[in-house]
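[worker-b] picked up task from shared queue
[worker-b] task type: protein-ligand structure
[worker-b] ligand name resolved to zinc ion; SMILES cross-checked against name lookup, match
[worker-b] sequence length check passed
[worker-b] input payload:
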Amino acid sequence: MECYHCGSVRVNKSGKTRNGKQRYKCRECGRTLRENPQRHTYDEARKEEILRAYHERSSLRGLTRIFGVSRQTVTSWLKKSL
Ligand SMILES: [Zn+2]
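[worker-b] inference finished, payload out:
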């Protein structure tokens, strides 16, 4: 397993996603990793994860940095979820 954000191999297991997939956390850049990532589409579990983080942290800028999603993407989800 290699971090697809920074290329590091120092990756720890970090629980499971809601749909039962193994989740990892990179020890170098601290970002969350998933197996078989889909770079350009967001499944419902990831979307929920991001939206939940948004409600906890209330920082759109932080989310775009952590999850690598665009502000526009998150904003459009927020509008739909209201
Ligand atoms: Zn990394």
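[worker-b] attaching auto-annotations
[worker-b] Residues 3, 5-6, 8, 26, 28-29, 31 surround zinc ion (CB under 6 Å).
[worker-b] releasing lock
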